[in-house]
Description:
A hairpin with a 2-residue loop joins β4 (104-110) and β5 (113-115). The chain is globular. By secondary structure, it is α+β, with helices and mostly antiparallel strands. 43% of the residues are buried. The model is unreliable at 1-11 and 30-44 (pLDDT under 50). It is built from 20 helices and 21 strands. It starts with 5 loop residues before the first helix and ends in an 8-residue tail after the last helix. Bound molecules: ligand BES and zinc ion (ZN). Zinc ion (ZN) binds at residues 329, 333, 352, 355.
Amino acid sequence: MQKYSLPAFVFFVLTILKIMKYQWLMILILALTGSGCKSNLEKPKETVVTDPHSFSRPEEVAVRHLSLHLKTDFENKRLSGKVILTIENKTGANQLILDTQKLTIEKTKADNSETSFSLGDNDPYLGQPLSIAINPNTKTVTVYYQTAPDAEALQWLSPEQTSGRRSPFLFTQSEATLARSWIPLQDSPGIRFTYDAEIECPRSLMAVMSAENDTVLHRNGIYHFNMPQPVPSYLMALAVGNLRYQAYDHRCGVYAEPQILDQAYYEFADMPAMIDSASMLYGDYRWGRYDVLVLPPSFPFGGMENPRLTFATPTVIAGDRSLTALIAHELAHSWSGNLVTNATWNDFWLNEGFTTYFESRIMEKIYGKPYADMLAAIADDDLLTTLKDLGSSSPDTRLKMDLKGRNPDDGMSDIAYEKGRLFLTLIEQTVGRKRWDHFLKNYFNTYAFQSMTTEKFRDYLYTNLLSKEDQDKIRTEQWMFEPGLPDNRPLTKSAELDKAAALARDFSDGKPIHTQNLSNWTTHHYLYFLRSLPENLTLEQMIKLDNLFHFNSSRNAEIRNQWLLLCISNHYEPAYSNLEEFLTTVGRRKFLRPLYSALAKTDSGKALALKIYKHARNGYHAVSITTIDQILNYKSATPD
Ligand code: BES
Ligand code: ZN
C-alpha cells in the first residue's frame, strides 16, 4: 500500500479545514509544520550511515562544497594553503569535526572571523579529529594548513623516478582513508561534495585533478579546477609533473610524460570503444570527459578511478594492448563506485565486485567471450589462492566485511573483487542476462550520486529482481554475509588456457616444444603457461625455458612478475639482477607483495629481499611500504 508523506497529509488536513472555514486552525498548523515540510522536500537524498573509519559527524553538520587553494613545495615536500568548506548545519551544532592525518593546522575561520580549533588524540589508522568552533548560522569554515613531508596520500618523486628524469613529480592516492593526509575534510565515502580548486606549481609543470581539466600547460603555473558533480573524499586527486595530453576524440584522451605519451596513446586506443560499450550496458556516462593519466612506475596500484581522470600504472603498457582490462575496470567505476558508492569500507565489494563484473562485460563486448573467459579463469585461479591463504572460514572472506578498528586496506583482497564478480555472475545466470542488465541499469540510475550498503542493495535486489525461489537457489545471504566460496559458484572454462596448460605439461614431460605455433598467444596464455608449470624445475629446465621463450628479457610486467616468481622458487640466479631491477623500478604493490613474500620463505631469499628493500624502499609509495614492512618484518630503523 502506498504510504503518504507528511506534506501530503498536512495538505489533506488543510483542505478539510478550508472547507470547514477554520482559518485560525489552518494558520496554527502551517506555522507548526510549514517550514519543516519545505526543507524536507529540498534536502538531497542521503543515507547517513555510521562509518567506523571517520571521526566526522555528517548527521550533525555536512560539508557540501570544498574550495581548495594549495601551493606545491617540491623542495620541502609540502602542500600549503587553505580549504574553504561550505557546510550545512543540520542540528544547530557548535562544532564541525573533520578528519586529518599529520596536518599542521595554522588557523581556522568560521565565515570571516577567526575561530578556535583543537586536534584530538592520534589514532594509528584514523589520524586526528579536528574540532572547529562554529555557530548554528555559520555558512563556511576555512582551514589554513600544511601537509607533512610523509603525508601518506602523497608521493613526491625525484626526477630520477620519472621517465624524463629531469622534472620532479607529485601524485596523490586518497582511497581508502588517505585524503585526510592532504585535505582536512569529512573523510567518509558516505559523504559527497562538489569542489573547486586553485593549484600553484612550478611553471614548467602541469597540474591535473579529478575534475574539469583544460589539458594545456599554463605558463604561470596556476591551474583552476571545478568539479560540478558531488563526489566522496576518496576520489579527490591531484598530480603535478611534466605532462602532455593527447586526445582520442572529443570525450577522451591520455596524459603522460612526453617520453611515454606515444606508447601510452597506442596502448589505450580502445578507450572510445570502451566508453561506448559501457554506456550501452548501464546508461549514460555522467561525468563529462574520461581521460587517463599515466603515472611513474612507483604508483602503488594498477589504477585508481579518480572521476574524469583515471590514474594508471605504466606497467600496463605492454606494447600490444594486452593489459588494458585495467582501463575497462577503472572506467566501469564511473558507474559502480563513483555513481553508486560503498557507504563504508565494509561494503567495499559493492565498489569492486560490481566493477570487476562490469569490466568483464566490457571486455566480452569488445574482444569476445573467449578472451573475457580467459581473464575470468585466471582471476578465478587467483581467488582460490587467496581463499587458501586466508583460510575459507576466515571472516575476511565475507563480502560484507567488518573492518572496525583495522586498516581499511586490509579489506583490499580478491574476495571483494572476484568473489563479488562470481556472485553477480551467478545472479546473471539465474535470472538471465536481459533481466539482470535491466535491473543493473535501473540500480545505477536510482541511486546515482548516493551511497549504498550491502543490506540496502540486498533489499533492492529482493524487491526488484529475485523471487524467494531465486534467493534460495542462489543462496544470496550465504554469498553476501558468510565466509568461504559457496559450492554453486559459476565455473569458467577457457579452451585457450587449456592449450597453455597442455604446453606446460609437455614441457615438464620433456616433449619437444614448437614455439612457432604460438604466434597468436597473448600475455594471458604465457601467464597461465608459467603458472601451470611445476613449482620446482631443474636448472636445465629453467635454462631451456628462458632459451625458448626469452622470459628473462620480457618487458611485459605481468610476465616478468610471473617468471621471477618461478625463478625465486627455483633459486635461479641468472635472473636475480632482473629481479633486483624490477623491484627497484616498479612500486606496484600487486607485484611487490608476491615477490617479496616468495623471497621471505627462505633464509637466503630473505637476506636478498632485505638487501634490495633497503635501497628500494625510499622509492615506494607509503601504501606499498606498509605492506612490505610487514612481510619482511622491517623496522625503518634497521641499520644498514
Ligand atoms: N579502487 C581501486 C584501487 C584501490 C582500492 C585503492 C582500495 C585503494 C584502496 C582500483 O579500482 C582497482 O581496483 N585497481 C586494481 C586494478 C584492477 C584492474 C583490478 C589494482 O590497482 O590492482
Ligand atoms: Zn577497482
